[in-house]
Design brief:
The protein is mainly β and 70 residues long. Helix content is 6%, strand content 76%. The two termini are 32 Å apart.
């Protein structure tokens, strides 16, 4: 693919705070507050973004069911 490097971007995300929105026996909804860094050919952009993560319990493990960036 020509010029792939010129069109690529990298996003690094660090979560700095979490909040439980709801919890039941086999489901939990968490709101995470993230600091994100986006790097592409136009430069670097720092911004905050919230993400809602839904987890479901499968056996003894918690699995991600849904992720929604706000």
């Amino acid at each position: 693919l020509p010029n792939l490097d010129q069109n690529s971007e990298k996003i690094t995300t660090q979560v700095f705070k979490t909040e439980v929105l709801s919890y039941s026996l086999g489901r939990i909804v968490i709101l995470a507050y993230a600091r994100r860094e986006k790097v592409n050919n136009q430069g670097t952009k720092l911004y905050n973004q919230e993400v809602e993560v839904n987890l479901v319990k499968v056996g003894e493990e918690w699995k991600v069911d849904r992720v929604e960036w706000k």
